[in-house]
Amino acid sequence: GAGVSQSPRYKVAKRGQDVALRCDPISGHVSLFWYQQALGQGPEFLTYFQNEAQLDKSGLPSDRFFAERPEGSVSTLKIQRTQQEDSAVYLCASSLAHSAGELFFGEGSRLTVL
Amino acid sequence: QKEVEQNSGPLSVPEGAIASLNCTYSDRGSQSFFWYRQYSGKSPELIMFIYSNGDKEDGRFTAQLNKASQYVSLLIRDSQPSDSATYLCALNTPLVFGKGTRLSVIA
Hints:
The complex is a heterodimer. Chain A is 0% helix and 48% strand. Chain A has strands spanning 5-7, 10-13, 19-24, 31-37, 44-50, 53-56, 65-68, 75-79, 88-95, 104-105, 109-113. Chain B is an all-beta fold. Helix content of chain B is 0%, strand content 53%. Chain B has no helices and 11 strands. In chain B, strands 2, 4, 5, 9, 10 and 11 form a 6-stranded mixed sheet that branches. Classes of the chains: A mainly beta, B mainly beta. The interface between A and B is medium-sized, with 21 and 21 residues.
């Protein structure tokens, strides 16, 4: 596709449920990033991949968060045993190269945990 | 102290005026600086980047960087109502974002 595609766009989960958020980056983009954006805040870095390698996962808030990109293209962010504080928009972005600051963002997945 | 600091605003300017958005950062080793614009309910999009001290102009936008003062700013000339958005300062790789400044341009 022409841009970064994320699904689902909206997800409502009951506390304790597991969720999976998908990101399909721009074709040919080597780097893929996940950010979490709470209402009224800037995006907070979670993790990034260069091809299939997860090079930095320092922003993942707890071991309930897990991300993968097994074939160096599509990525999945999984959140286990969701908590209310996990409610946020999860943004995926891709770029041509790791050192490039021009990130192309998807529309985001809005997660609401009840 | 958060790595990137921005005044959350809102900053209100009349149409046609210059809007000045400011950002300070704590990491003296930072090398690359970016301004993203985020419309309400939308995802961020890159407006400008700057790597060297001084000014960089692109159309109505000017980015200014002062590494000694750890300060980066964005000027928007001839502000338009369509410029109303949140402006995010970001630096380094992977990008670290400020919380953004909400700009409102009043017609």
